[in-house]
Amino acid sequence: MKKIALFTSGGDAPGMNACIRSVVRSAIYLDLEVYGIKYGYDGMIRGEISKMESYSVSNIVQTGGTILKSARSEDFRTKEGREKAYKNLKKHGIEGLVAIGGDGTFTGANLFYDEFGIPVVGAPGTIDNDLYGSDYTIGFDTAVNTALDAIDKIRDTAASHDRVFFIEVMGRHSGYIAIQSGIGGGAEMVMVPETSTTIDDVIKKLREGRDNKKTSSIIVVAEGDEQGSALQIAERVKLETPKMDIRVTSLGHIQRGGGPTAFDRILASRLGLAAVEGLMNGQKNVMVGVIDNKITYTNLKLAISKSKPLNEELIRLTKILSI
Ligand code: F6P
C-alpha cells in the first residue's frame, strides 16, 4: 500500500483534529502518501481530495471541530453516488481509507467495502460513545466534561432558587453522556433510553428528595429517553406537582465543540496510528478501538450492528448516590 486517504464524517467530535494529525503524520512516517477528503462522503463524490503534508496538520491537536469538515451525505446512500466516489479514489490511486466518524459513517464504509473492496479502517469519532468495539470514542470525554461544567453552573442557580432542573444532554440513542455527567454532577436522577423510568418514578424521587430536606434537584435526561425530551417530561411532571418550581435546559451543540481533553487527544492520537498500521498490516473492513486500554480491531459489520450496553455499575451508583 502506497497511498491512503482519510476523512471525517457525521457529527463532528472534539479530538477529530488530533486523530487527523495522527493519521497524517503516522502515514508519512511509514512512507505512505496521504490524502485528505473534505466534507466526508460528499467530498469523495465531488472529488474534493488533496494531498496532505506533515505541516498540513500543525497546530490542530488542541482544537475542536474538524479541519477536513464534515457532512451527513444523502448522495452516498445511492449506488450512483458511491460509484462516483470510487472513481474519484481510483483517479488518485487511493488504496486504503481511514474513516473517522460514528455508526452512520461506518455503515457507509461497510457498504462501500462490500461493493468495491477498498480496504477501510474506521476510527470511532463521536461524542455519543455508542460504538461496540471500543470502550471510548473520540470526543466523548470532552462532551461529558462540557456537560458537567454546565450542570455545575446550573446547580448554583438551582440551589439559590430552590428549583428543580431538567437538563437534556445529547447521545442520540445512547445514555452514556447522561450517566457520566449525571454521576459527576451529582444528579438526583438520570433518565436514559437503556432503562425505563416512568413519570411517576420521577415525581416519587422529587418528593422523596423534598422529604429528605433537599431544596433543589437536578435531573439529567438523555435526548433519546423513552419518555421524550426534557421539556416534555418537565411539562408532565409540572401537571402533577404544580407547586414545584421547575426549569428546563437543553445543552445542545455546545457539547460538540471546544478543545479536546487530554484523554481525547491521547485516545485520538493512539487510534490514528493504529488505523494506519491496521491498513498496512492488511486489515480491510474494521474499526480500531481500545478495550481495557489495549488497541483492538473489530469487524465493521459487528461494530455497527451490536449495541454497547451501559455499565450496570454506573446505573446502580447513580441510584445509591442520589438518595
Ligand atoms: O451523533 C452526535 C450527535 O451530536 C448526537 O448526540 C445528536 O443526536 C446528533 O449528533 C445531532 O445531530 P445534528 O448535528 O445533525 O443536529
Automatic annotation (TrEMBL):
Q: Which top EC class applies here?
A: transferase
Tell me where the transmembrane regions lie: none
Keywords per UniProt: Allosteric enzyme, ATP-binding, Cytoplasm, Glycolysis, Kinase, Magnesium, Metal-binding, Nucleotide-binding, Transferase
Specify where it is mainly localized.
cytoplasm
Task: Kindly state which reaction or reactions the protein catalyses.
Answer: beta-D-fructose 6-phosphate + ATP = beta-D-fructose 1,6-bisphosphate + ADP + H(+)
Task: Give the matching NCBIfam families.
Answer: PFKA_ATP (TIGR02482), PRK03202.1 (NF002872)
This one is known as ATP-dependent 6-phosphofructokinase
